[in-house]
Amino acid sequence: MRERWVIGNWKMNGTLPRNAALLDALKASAPTRAKLAVCVPSVYLAQASALLAGSAIAWGAQDVSANADGAYTGQISASMLQEFGAKFAIVGHSERRLFNAESNEDVAKKADAAAMVGIRPVICVGESLAERAEDRAEAVVCAQLAACAEVLAKFPALAILAYEPVWAIGTGKTATPAQAEAMHAFLRRELAKISAAAANVPILYGGSVKPSNAAELFAQPNIDGGLIGGASLVAADFVAIAAA
Ligand code: 13P
Fold it and tell me: Which CATH class is domain 5-243?
């Protein structure tokens, strides 16, 4: 049985009081079959760690440096995240690939740096609208996945994969359950080529997941949960998605 996770990606949102209200509401919510986590801006890791300690909700970061330490102004290492009890680090989110020019190789190094200290890398893959229109969606995500093959082979019990079609992120345009399942099944076959253990890596779907579409998406055989942006900022929506 594969793990099921619903992970919130707050992106660059939040204030100390708003985060406290959101985390308190999540803590007060009924437990769900899927496990819950929030990936917060790194300055709020201490707050998440303090407010969520002892709760069933895990927390993590939205990025991690590929380097262990040294002269890398502005970067945050995996061991620093670990000091704050972070369980996850999102790596290779399309917004970082786009705005920070992260390559597939950068993403693989970051995933490895996280896993080396026991932090679970949430490796994001996904194609743009143009790539889908040109019928290159599978080739693009396959190349993104292939770059991380070594990490997935080394750390199958830690790694999590997230399929986030770029055209569905923050646009309100969700992939249909059939479109998402087709890509997840493709990714599962690619994972199985790496190893039997890698074939069990959870694959989360991300891109405009809402309470109204979560159940149908999560009912697909190869969708093991979600990576949630906008809706993770509203406690009731996030919990409703997890309950789905
Ligand atoms: P939205 O849920 O806001 O579309 O964002 C998805 C996402 O990018 C999660 O990482």
Answer: alpha beta
